[in-house]
Amino acid sequence: MSFKDIVGQERAIKILTKSLKENKVSSSYIFVGSEGTGKKLTAIEFTKAVNCLNLNRNLEACDNCHSCNEINKQCCPDLKIVETTKGSIKIEQIREIRKEIELKPFRYKKKVYIIDKAEKMTLEASNCLLKTIEEPPYYAIIILICSKIDPILPTIISRCQIVNFGLITSLKIKELLLSKIDNLEKDKAKIISKLAQGSIGKAFKLSADKEYFIRREKMLDYLSIILPGKYGEDIFTKVEKIMSEIDRIE
């Protein structure tokens, strides 16, 4: 896995590789964008690149050195991923970061903390994190991942480099599905890519739902009885898009 395998986020990756090239890696980042657009995957690849022992000419991790292998196996002592517990990120989790971050890296160049769904931090957790972001150790990188930036404290936002992740085009999603999923029909890949609303994560969830197309065909059969010609299918497709958009907003 490398930066080139991340679909549709060329601009975000260009920002990160430029910081590596110029040796201007920030101490704190906010990766913001819709769910399923590759933010967490990019954060992990960036961590690999920062600590890679054999970085290539394209500023991509080698995927073979000790550091890359440990990160790939999720057993790297210098990488910590913080996730929600019972729907939020609590102050105890951030206090643990503050305690650990005082210690220098165990093996590699940088200690990296990835806070997934950072918009779910409680106010107490946010204020606790702010203290660390204000005066970060030179060897630490904190990456906040969020789908919405508004819930993040303005004082945190002002101290982070923001990297935006856009929606993926339906064409790129379709191509990815066909390349990754054996025996997936092109028509199904096309339908899924449109319903995914720019989210690769959502596209793979839909493709894994074996019952979805069975339910879809049943609904089309019902509508074909009520409505003549292609009207039933057209209406159903529009309803699917509306429901998909509602899910994305939520």
UniProtKB/TrEMBL annotation:
Gene3D superfamilies: P-loop containing nucleotide triphosphate hydrolases. InterPro entries: DNA_Rep/Repair_Clamp_Loader, P-loop_NTPase. GO terms for biological process: DNA-templated DNA replication. PANTHER family: DNA POLYMERASE III SUBUNIT DELTA, REPLICATION FACTOR C / DNA POLYMERASE III GAMMA-TAU SUBUNIT. This is DNA polymerase III subunit delta.
